[in-house]
């Protein structure tokens, strides 16, 4: 049995909270640079250049990529024959609060969603799931709500064709429009139950959009991206340049009577990071 201390996991969460908010993911930076090299519209070039420059300044100065520093979501994908010793929830929440205070990141979490209590840094949303891998993967996602508010669940009929899945996802991207800060990164979850599909969509958001494809259904992901990029939303809603930088899909077995499709939208600064322990 391999043992991980909750304090050590929390230490990695602390580091990732600061990193993801101030250092844009390399795959997204490369995607933005590729888009800049390809677009012809002068206005799209100006705005893409501004996004790239914003990321450069954030990394150099330690300032956040965006004023919305998000709600922290932590995925702990527990390695095979591994146990965590200590108070994981308490340690992680304290680490998130310390990281946000130390890095001067905006407190954006209300503990009471109805009464809208004064905002703070914690608690984070923590997902713990066993895996068959030997090592434990810690993923931190700082989810801004300009994009989160555009997430959607589609409960399709089990007879739905491939094209209907594509259309459901693309319709969600279309409804997101300029207010979710395109160009987007899109996570799609297919199968399971309604809650599982949405969780898979958020996990799919935490996959790279370049290099070897890590998701499932690569041809379906390609079709979604191509059709979404014909919507004409473009960079920050200008109507020019890419609407979507990347699409990833994850799936789970589902009931014969249903076909849940969850869609989670990430903005041009989709902020996640990972570490293996």
Outline the structure in words:
- The chain has helices spanning 6-22, 26-38, 42-61, 88-102, 145-148, 162-176, 194-205, 218-228; strands at residues 2-5, 71-78, 82-85, 125-130, 137-143, 152-156, 184-191, 244-252, 259-266, 271-276.
- The chain has a domain at 145-270.
- It contains 8 helices and 10 strands.
- Helix content is 39%, strand content 23%.
- The longest helix is centred in the first third of the chain and has 20 residues, at 42-61.
- The model has no long low-confidence stretch (mean pLDDT 95).
- The two termini are 14 Å apart.
- The strands form 3 sheets. A 4-stranded mixed sheet has the order 4-2-5-10. Strands 6-9-7-8 form a 4-stranded mixed sheet, with helices on both faces. Strands 1-3 form a two-stranded parallel ribbon.
Which helices and strands occur, and which strands form pairs?
Blueprint: E1 2-5, H1 6-22, H2 26-38, H3 42-61, E2 71-78, E3 82-85, H4 88-102, E4 125-130, E5 137-143, H5 145-148, E6 152-156, H6 162-176, E7 184-191, H7 194-205, H8 218-228, E8 244-252, E9 259-266, E10 271-276
Parallel strand pairs: 1-3, 2-4, 7-8
Antiparallel strand pairs: 2-5, 5-10, 6-9, 7-9
Sum this structure up briefly.
The chain has 277 residues and is an alpha/beta fold.
